[in-house]
Amino acid sequence: MFQFPIFFDVLSPRKSRACASVQSMQAQNPEFREYVRKIFESARFISHLGIELTDIEAGTCGTRLTVRAEHAQQDGVVHAGVIATMADHTAGGSAGTLLRKGQRVLSVEFKMNYLRPAAATELRCNGTVLKAGRTLTIAESEVFAIRNGESKLAAKGTFTLAVLDG
Amino acid sequence: MFQFPIFFDVLSPRKSRACASVQSMQAQNPEFREYVRKIFESARFISHLGIELTDIEAGTCGTRLTVRAEHAQQDGVVHAGVIATMADHTAGGSAGTLLRKGQRVLSVEFKMNYLRPAAATELRCNGTVLKAGRTLTIAESEVFAIRNGESKLAAKGTFTLAVLDG
Amino acid sequence: MFQFPIFFDVLSPRKSRACASVQSMQAQNPEFREYVRKIFESARFISHLGIELTDIEAGTCGTRLTVRAEHAQQDGVVHAGVIATMADHTAGGSAGTLLRKGQRVLSVEFKMNYLRPAAATELRCNGTVLKAGRTLTIAESEVFAIRNGESKLAAKGTFTLAVLDG
Amino acid sequence: MFQFPIFFDVLSPRKSRACASVQSMQAQNPEFREYVRKIFESARFISHLGIELTDIEAGTCGTRLTVRAEHAQQDGVVHAGVIATMADHTAGGSAGTLLRKGQRVLSVEFKMNYLRPAAATELRCNGTVLKAGRTLTIAESEVFAIRNGESKLAAKGTFTLAVLDG
């Protein structure tokens, strides 16, 4: 009698756990790709760091960064602030894909967990919307440290973004 | 030349995004199920609320709760504190599956996001370890609100747990 | 030429640091005390746990809890979920003091840090508004563990609350 | 009969609330100022952004940043990532003041709340240790946006740092 959509199959949590919160998302603005590109092009700090947009789909956003000497903290690995910046902007990009024309988002809070020191030559980040609401959007970002062809989850964050009209 | 494990395929983030951080986890203690059951049985507050263990695998833990009148907040939905308690203990249970014999975990911090008001007759929660370290384990919990055979992601949290010897 | 209000004296951070964010807050609803009392009386889970309101001022709220056996986790100290519930509801109470008549607040996310195991016979909690906005209020809660006449900061949390009309 | 230290006077929460968690902190390393200076000098990303150390005391740290065009996000205000970087490194500096010789700290997680858009010519940040533990230190940072001689709390964050030997 119970009919669960496949990704919410909580009655057999063993199988579905990791993807439990995945839903297909619908873009409201047909020009959402142009809009997200603009969020990246017009943010001076993002281009200054060298963060590049690689992927835009409804509900998700991908970015990459070639690690430079100036991104390092005292022990040589990438500074937590670089990773937080990348995670924040990529989460914002994913939220941006689901806005209506004329709306914008603003980070109101976020939380980062650093799982491993990011000793890397390149970072990759995936942002995914968990819930797109009328006034608030919740998104997650995962940041991967890449070195010698190996990719490791270095950090994960959760972001609350305010949806503003104009 | 590049060989990425399937769930870390960051070069094609489109496909792997939602499951990017899933890794198979190895239990260190052959009696991990008994240990996790004990964490639930001996925690008075958990049995007092009615939170029941439904699922234990290496790296994950599942729980359920039949919602009672006393779990409500002022507007009738389940209190954020009930949901946080369930998410915290289930994350702790998932962390417990990966401990060595004699170790235990203690929540040092967590962050909850409430995605929807939990108007529900039942809650289900899945806890998953993101990273099991020597001294710290990072885990996530997703809490689903179930009503009339429908299940919705109501809240998600991230937990940092200290791994203690004895 | 520079005129800093006393609690924002960032030019001499040494003196003002701990109190840097304190501002006097103005209640908008003359009946804010009645309103906050109602938030506590009508929340079943709060009275079920035994959390009592002790203090209501514009921008702040105080609560207490006599620790009972059923509040314990597996190692005998108060469960992290009890502390989170108290911190959440007290932060909500502090946010409630600054609402206009007819508004209410709802937790959208929070983050708790547990500084010490709460081995206590009584808990006390203070909630304080950091920023009361039009649509979001940010508040903090500090939870103190009291035993043998000694009081120790056991946990601290930060709360984002949505301000809803009606 | 009850003797509470002045800053932990929870029996009269009205008076002490804002400063409830302030404790005097004891440095363990007589050269803690040199050590913290080194954390700032050797972190390439920090000097690259222009973040300067202004204040070091046992348990606290102060920094400043002259805002430049490259710190901006798309809407012209300072990027959330710049503020997070400053808050993180200043919290780390405050934690560094209480280490024993040879120890270092590493951010394991943090949470930022953005209270107001940081339209500013200068940022000031104060980091304060909440709890210095054997393996984990909890610290807070407040970031102030300064413009036209006015200073406003723009963001506040909580940081968990691992204490590492060597």
Short description:
With 166 residues, chain A is α+β, with helices and mostly antiparallel strands. Helix content of chain A is 22%, strand content 39%. Chain A is built from 4 helices and 6 strands.
Task: Write structural notes for this entry.
- The structure is a homotetramer of 166-residue chains.
- Chain A is α+β, with helices and mostly antiparallel strands.
- The first copy, chain A, has one domain (26-165): Roll (Thiol Ester Dehydrase, Chain A).
- In chain A, 22% of the residues lie in helices and 39% in strands.
- Chain A has helices at residues 13-16, 32-41, 44-49, 80-96; strands spanning 52-57, 60-66, 103-114, 122-132, 136-147, 150-165.
- A six-stranded antiparallel β-sheet of chain A has the order 1-2-4-5-6-3.
- In chain A, strand 5 (136-147) and strand 6 form a beta hairpin.
- In chain A, helix 2 (32-41) packs antiparallel against helix 4 (80-96).
- The longest helix of chain A is centred in the middle third of the chain and has 17 residues, at 80-96.
- The first copy, chain A, starts with 12 loop residues before the first helix and ends with a strand.
- Mean pLDDT of chain A is 87; it is low at 1-22.
- At the A-B interface, strand 1, strand 4, strand 5 and strand 6 of A face strand 1, strand 4, strand 5 and strand 6 of B.
- Strand 3 of chain A pairs antiparallel with strand 3 of chain D, so a sheet runs across the interface.
